[in-house]
Design the sequence.
């Protein structure tokens, strides 16, 4: 007779885990370190292929991220995804005291390798009431590397992953609504940009730069929200405009193609027929007859 072991009573309670984040590859701790107070300290802009987390233990200063400068202060956590250009500068009156660590081989579903969060979430998060938690875990990590006791590497790996879960909790608590709105703002900005420029020659790189977003992430959220790729959406918008011009103007077919960003007349006709089921000329004649 099968016996179910997991049951609850007034004396015995089971708390089941819920999975919120999906790791395809487990993060590997690369290093942990600290920076003591140095008035006016600054570092050169740099980038790396792993993800780095900065914890402002005390003081204030600035973080420069992809040519933008942000103020940072005691309790802030700064996330640098792989490939992000960044640096920090300490103030002279309240020098920064930083603790930091880096992970490699991090792969989260739907994000590029060694990306911790999507760009629309931002990069700086205030720890607020969770400040003591991050102090504790960074202190434990530093102590493990200083003492190098038996199994210290394994302990440090697991502590760093626990710290990562607390970071996810913080981001979820303080940024879930803002991040959703940020995602919606990104889509709205993208749609507005396409509406203004779909008649021009567009590339995904150009669009992503205009939206201050990574190409991969922008393509992902757009397809998720709109049900089609950015390229298909632009093509659809061009065909709608081509049909309007064919209905409302007497422009020659080749000039209609130029007007909607498809200057190759044969390509324009081929795409129009594939999309609309007839050639541009037949479409115009059908409108005239009706």
Sequence:
């Amino acid at each position: 007779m099968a016996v179910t072991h997991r049951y609850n009573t007034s004396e015995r309670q089971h708390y089941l885990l819920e999975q919120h984040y999906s790791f395809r590859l487990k993060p590997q701790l690369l290093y942990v370190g600290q920076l003591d107070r140095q008035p006016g300290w600054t570092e050169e802009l740099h980038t790396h292929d792993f993800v780095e987390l900065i914890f402002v233990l005390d003081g204030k200063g600035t973080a420069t991220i992809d040519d933008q400068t942000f103020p940072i202060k005691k309790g802030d956590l700064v996330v640098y995804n792989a490939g992000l250009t960044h640096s920090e500068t300490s103030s002279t009156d309240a020098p920064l005291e930083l603790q930091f660590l880096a992970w490699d081989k991090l792969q989260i579903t739907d994000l590029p390798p060694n990306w911790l969060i999507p760009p629309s979430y931002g990069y700086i998060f205030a720890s607020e009431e969770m400040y003591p938690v991050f102090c504790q875990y960074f202190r434990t990590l530093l102590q493990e590397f200083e003492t190098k006791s038996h199994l210290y590497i394994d302990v440090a790996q697991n502590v760093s992953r626990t710290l990562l879960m607390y970071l996810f909790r913080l981001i979820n608590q303080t940024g879930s609504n803002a991040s959703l709105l940020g995602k919606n703002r990104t889509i709205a900005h993208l749609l507005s940009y396409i509406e203004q420029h779909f008649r021009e020659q567009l590339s995904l790189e150009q669009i992503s730069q205009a939206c201050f977003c990574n190409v991969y992430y922008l393509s992902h959220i757009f397809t998720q929200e709109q049900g089609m790729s950015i390229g298909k959406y632009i093509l659809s918008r061009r065909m709608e405009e081509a049909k309007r011009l064919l209905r409302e103007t007497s422009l020659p077919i080749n000039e209609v193609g130029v007007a909607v960003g498809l200057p190759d007349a044969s390509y324009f006709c081929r795409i129009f027929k594939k999309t609309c089921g007839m050639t541009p000329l037949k479409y115009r004649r059908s409108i005239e007859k009706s």
Observations:
- The CA atoms of residues 191 and 237 lie 11 Å apart.
